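dumping these here so i dont lose them again. two proteins, back to back, each one seq then structure tokens. dont judge the mess
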Amino acid sequence: MPDGRDAVAIKVVKSLAEVPPEAWDACAGTDNPFVSHAFLSALEDSGSAAAETGWLGQHLVIEDPAGGIAACAPLYLKNHSYGEYVFDWGWADAYERAGGRYYPKLQCSVPFTPVTGPRLLVNAALPADQRREMRAALIAGMAQLAQNLGVSSLHVTFPTEDEWEAFGQAGYLQRIGQQFHWENKGFATFDAFLDELSSRKRKNIKKERRCVHEAGLDIRVLEGADITEAHWDAFFRFYMDTSDKKWGQAYLDRRFFSLLGERLGRAVVLVVVEKDGRPVAGALNLRGGDTLYGRNWGCVADYRFLHFEACYYQAIDYAIAHGLKWVEAGAQGPHKVQRGYLPRRTYSAHWIADPGFRDAVRHFLEDEARGIQREMSAYGRFSPFKKHS
């Protein structure tokens, strides 16, 4: 193992299939399911994140002297900006109008997944000083690979705050964003959560839940092996229907969902909604160490407030019942505030090769950060929770 004087050798692998699952997961840990070998390999093996779809694996791996893995990072060479949720379309357009070539670029992220989590995966068994060394090596290795490939830029999206700070110290540009998350403050029941809301917001949520109940819908929460291929068939129909209506592009294929259920087991939590025994909607979640992560939703019928019930309120019910601290219900959505989901910062870091373009992006990020901070402050003033003196 390097002791601070030796060079660190970093290997680039194009597929998670080249990395033993147990070795990758020794670095990824168990708190965040999205950086697990199971989730990332399901994306690759299903063809959802592959060279053919514009996600060519360039994963970084640092081996230890025994042939295990000391550190690793999910990294992709991309020829587009789809499936990232930290938008750089304007950057790409500006750079290409100025005569530059924005694509390909490097992307350190979990494809199609706007979830904060570790990106610099280091074996927790290493001493603290070696863990810091491994993180620094991965950060430097990404930039070196970007230079070797001659790409315009490298983007690290949804890292943890401490990783974001480390990238900033290494000279990467820093960007902030926001999402809306629900925090479990020790609530024993959903009603206990409602008791903390203002009267008007509490009545509104009760009305929405009552409306769904009166529609005669049967809602069940399934986990792990209780989710059958028939459930995945139905959910894929919902997913495709919603993609067609809202986004026009489905990133995930049918096989991905089967592999997800097979490889992640009880970390998969599926809300199934039926009407007269027929599936009509569903919401897919993954469970981490202290968080329930809402991922995909779909519905083939129109029921008032069902989206809120299946995606937000069922998730809160589940978190309370299982003692989870947080519910993260996906990207965007200021409408979540009145339902108890408050703003939290998200992060990204960016390496830009062209000095002039880098300077322009830096000025943009400074202005953007001030705007986001103002937005978060404004949302805070509209919190649905009671004001305690």
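---- next one ----
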Amino acid sequence: MKNTICKVATAALFLLPMTAMASAPAGGGVTKKTFLDVYKEGGWCMHFILLFSIATVWLIIDIWVRTNAKKMTPEADVQSAQQLFLAGDYVGAYAAMKAAVSPFAQVVRTALGSVGYGKEATEEALLSAVDKINSTLQTRINYLSVIGVCTPMVGLLGTVSGMKGAFSSLGTSGIGDPSGLSAHIGEVLIATASGLFVAIPAFMGFYFLRNKLQAAIHNLQDESESLFRNAPYEYLKDADVGQEATYAALPNWISSPDGATAQG
């Protein structure tokens, strides 16, 4: 289903400027041109604009799905964590969150790994995990801004290339061959307009998804922090809830309690 939506959206996004730029001859009729005809007429820069249009659609769909509340804070994960916290089973909660793959599970698991070091360490770990998720998704959104800036530049470069060909044709054959000149002018218009048609939805997606991400991050942080509100940190002191392997041993020049060195 997702692949079908992506293909339809890609075709719609890229065919829109092509449809808008059908040319009309002097007789008043409309010349029907296929997508491939208009694409070829746009020149070499259309290859890059096509890639940018596909990337725009893919990023918008991908980020939209990733920032949905059901994806960021799944109800099943929230209820599972709440039930285990109410039962005081923090080890079980860590195991459940480790088995889950949602951003909510990642944040709660990270915070539980530091719960034995006190409230301040737990809150810092929680906020750090939220910031990491926010940074990862924001980076994806920023790609839309990059596309919105670069695509018109590519179209402008195609415009310059088309104008060079137009003036070269005019200088070689003069005004007596308007067909050659009009072909280059058509390339100029298609390259410029195609770049703008791709840049506009890219910028719109950038601003809309950025705001959507911030709302999702606030909800994620609120749901995660609510689990640790009034947590019994005094009873969790030095508890190794995560029970992960520890690789940071004592330095080998320090003696262990039994009188031997830490290593050999």
